[in-house]
Amino acid sequence: MKKVLTIIVVSVLLSCGSQKKIIQTETNINQVKEETQLVAYKTDNISPVLEKNVKESLEFLASDELEGRSTGSKGIEKAAVFIENYFKKNNIEPYFKTYRDSFNLKDIVGYNIIGYIEGNDSELKKEFVILGAHYDHIGNGKAVNGDVIANGANDDASGTVAVMEWAKYFSKVKNNKRSILFTLYSAEEMGLKGSGHLAKRLKKENLNLYTMINFEMIGVPRAKEEIMAYMSGYEKSNLGEKLNEYGEKEVIGFFPKAKEFQLFMRSDNYPFYKAFKKPAHAISTFDFTNFDYYHHVDDEADKMDFKHMTNFINVMIPALEGMINAPKQEIKMNDE
Fold first, then answer.
1. Fewer Cβ in 10 A, N or C end of the chain?
2. The domain containing residue 40 runs over which residues?
């Protein structure tokens, strides 16, 4: 009987060991597939960002569990931890001692989340490109059918996910000559407080800023006859023109209402423009005709067009690479 039990125990242990090896092998295969896809993109134009990953991240950030991500809430803490873990998993370093850039708003503590990839060129790495979005939202909104949670899927979980995906991409391909900061802000909904704090801090530390781009509400597509996205303050610099040139595709255009509604001053790019007087703009695909749920409880993940989002993120990659790797500073304010 003891011999039989011994054989059974050994068989079970061997089986468990085999299962563990199978799981590890599957994990390694998936990792190789992802890294191979990123390499293939460089030669065969295969999209490096996958729709399923975009969907998964956005569905969490815009879930009821996060309670609308208002600054100072338990929900935004969960969002912050999610972003920090994402950065850690993808080998994106913190720029400061930790990922958090904290600030006080009376009795509320807010924190931006900052990831960093150093440039690989001995001189150009001294220059910085900032890619940003705000990960907070308004918390609760006017009740609709008993729902009071304003999930903020488009505003601005969509931009947040885009910045996270670009951070992951650049951490894997390691081709950035300039250094990049991936900045996710809180307290945007309280008057650009998070980005305002970070811009002042980086200016005080004499950061050598080249350009800053904020991504705001990119979860829904514009009409087919319109350019995919628009840039606030388009006329203030040549950034839009250069991004289209680098990407070899007209992705960024001028939107008259952006100037009419003064959008340049209403998003997280503006504090950086004020502090550094360098090209700092917001890019969006929301144009006031294609989404009815701004600051509304129905700004939910199921309203997002994930195919559009993923396409936009992928299309922007060569444009961003061109900006980050240009041998000299080609992007300038138009009054220079």
1. N
2. 1-46
